[in-house]
Amino acid sequence: MGFKIGLLGLGTVGTGTAEILLDPTGRNPLLQEIEIYRVGVRDTTKPRTVDLPSTAFTTDLEAIATDPDIDIVVELIGGLEPARSLILKAIHHKKHVVTANKAVISRYGDEIFTAANEAGVYVMLEAAVGGGIPVIQPLKQALVVNRIQSVMGIVNGTTNYILTRMQAEGADFAEVLADAQRLGYAEADPTADVDGLDAADKLAILASLAFGGRVKLEDVYCEGIRQVSAADITYADRLGFTIKLLAIAHRESPTDNPDLLQLRVHPTLVPKAHPLASVNGVYNAILVEGDPVGQVMFYGRGAGAGPTASAVVSDIMSIAAILKVEEIEAQQFNQQKVDVPHPLLSCSHQHYCAIAPMAELNTRFYARFLCNDEPGVIGHLGTSFGNHQVSLESVVQIGFQDGFAEIVVVTHESREGNFRQALEEIRTLKAVERIPSVVRVL
Amino acid sequence: MGFKIGLLGLGTVGTGTAEILLDPTGRNPLLQEIEIYRVGVRDTTKPRTVDLPSTAFTTDLEAIATDPDIDIVVELIGGLEPARSLILKAIHHKKHVVTANKAVISRYGDEIFTAANEAGVYVMLEAAVGGGIPVIQPLKQALVVNRIQSVMGIVNGTTNYILTRMQAEGADFAEVLADAQRLGYAEADPTADVDGLDAADKLAILASLAFGGRVKLEDVYCEGIRQVSAADITYADRLGFTIKLLAIAHRESPTDNPDLLQLRVHPTLVPKAHPLASVNGVYNAILVEGDPVGQVMFYGRGAGAGPTASAVVSDIMSIAAILKVEEIEAQQFNQQKVDVPHPLLSCSHQHYCAIAPMAELNTRFYARFLCNDEPGVIGHLGTSFGNHQVSLESVVQIGFQDGFAEIVVVTHESREGNFRQALEEIRTLKAVERIPSVVRVL
């Protein structure tokens, strides 16, 4: 017995994965049956911190994806290509796949899972969302008897780190980003993180699992945190909110039209008593709401070698456990093992989820206005919002900036389309100089 | 195909369980293969809200535990007997068991799992800890590759509700308890909850899973919340802490003696920035710390029909999924299905965990003293603590009560045995009138 792993990539997460597999003492005994058989790297001569025989290394990644002796291919090279092709090749060669690659799964999940179902293999991706936090497995198993109403979370550590520091220090975005880059918490090119693209990838994956349908990445509305200012964080704080970059997937109307989803990533004012409000720094958390379980939240480190490797190896273990059941079963019958799809671990949905346009979203809004300091301005704002059926929860003149009165508005729940029309009308008001920020409120 | 369930008990959780099984639309399709075959109740004539044929009901619970047509027995009657005997009987008749019964598992887990391993069946208990929160399954699967250093949590909703209201209202324990009883958040006899016994049951189960060894319930040190006063909550708040009833299991010394555990349930001063500090009301949360995953927290409703039923049915589904794999495998070979133990779902450990005595615990302490208002009192306290190698982090005279000076001390991390000896010495000081409270600090 024993299961052979082919590791594609030995970077940070690959090394963390190898470290767990090579040091099984004090961990689950099934680990001892898993062998790192081949490791695909760019340069076999590079010194490595993990103790693997030099014969295990190869630069021929395709040879690993097709090696008949390998049971599970673990893809940790990241990026779109050759990751996608290698995953597909491994699947066609009847290998189970474990990946941490959110970008490939969110873009090519349909192609990959269709191929996996045809080949009768598993594609596991716990590490693709939330680092070491078990959230994919609970969605596929422990929560699977629920009708999920929403999945929302803080799924990008870099932006949460930046927002947490902006909040703590009263600092502006550009300043904290520069420091985060210096400290290694943000990449030199921070686009994928700060513009919400990484969070969008993860949301597409979470939504697909939670709602049992495929999701197109381009259906995820996406807004990053570049526009969030120190001023907005301060005003939000005074109003009882913390600003977080949330990824939110929810049924637009659970009773009337349960199949219509809303998918969005944007900065959000989160009430301070909400469980997501106190998730700070590089931590991630995902809040699932289902019938009948209610609210359940999963919290932990969303990145890093150790946490991500924990998720990768747990996926390897899930597959190994099933293979072992099949193997013993086959031995009992004196037969060759047959791969049988585990009903909860394999992907069963094939239709695409229907997505509601953002204009149909019902939410509260926070908006900040710079106005001429003249009587009646608040009345004008109120009238314009009223003209478009947007009712206001609070209107506060916070102070003055550059000689303009600074007015902060929080609306009641309104249709986004109506709110946008009201803003268009307000922009034409002579008394209104600028609208520096508009943020949705949870 | 199809799997037959025998339900023992149709109370709150039993009814919630039946409601999920009878209404599979929008949930995982595997649910449709699960049939409620028999229901054991005390009174078959009682009107029921769930739509089950009257022929399914019986008062003969033993007949369900032994019925050859039943695949999975779901024990939801609670209490020790006849629950224990029925579970054992079902196991001996080769039935898989799902239970929400923490009391039976924490006391008779060794007997039950030994029997289950001999019979080759699963005993699943997600619902026994944390209601609907997936925590047992992550400990058995997603986190199983980690070396766990600690598991701690808020696992009793009643006490957390009481402490949250005491904090919010500045009210005393007895007052809030009476109101909680009136509102149905606390039982008429609140002993199991407020004295920490329910939390101790759950901690024994969590520790056993996290540390891969059996745990004796009597090894759990247990202190309830009756002694927590409004004054302590106020002072803790000023010092930056929230008081929570925590259940804590951790390795005493992860490097030197990893097999020695500390198991304890007691009120605890939790720093406000700690993830458990903001878990309020009837919510539960369990924080797991492992190598290499770091801190991971699971949060949700710890009780109630819906959440608990979600956990029960998810366990049923986990078993059904494995049975289905075995069934298809057997069909492929034209053989009778053989039960094969899934390496992660079955219980593999047989040794008992070694437990360190409380005197060996290293922790910080909060203590409140009523002293005569005379110069040098703080010096006397400091000297006595120093005599026993307890160093102090802060000593604050908070104010006066009944003519005595009220002094609050927070220590640095100290050995509990030393701290207790210091307290003995302090009790003999003439200047010290009383020591109304001693609470450990996280």
UniProtKB/TrEMBL annotation, chains A, B:
The answer on whether this UniProt entry bears the keyword Oxidoreductase reads yes
Q: Which cofactor does it need?
A: a metal cation
One Pfam family of this protein, by short name?
A: NAD_binding_3
Please give one Gene Ontology molecular function term for this protein: homoserine dehydrogenase activity
Where does the chain bind NADPH?
Answer: K102
Q: Which residue positions are annotated as catalytic?
A: K202 (proton donor)
Binding locations of NADP(+): L8, G9, L10, G11, T12, V13, G14, T15
User: What name is this protein filed under?
Assistant: Homoserine dehydrogenase
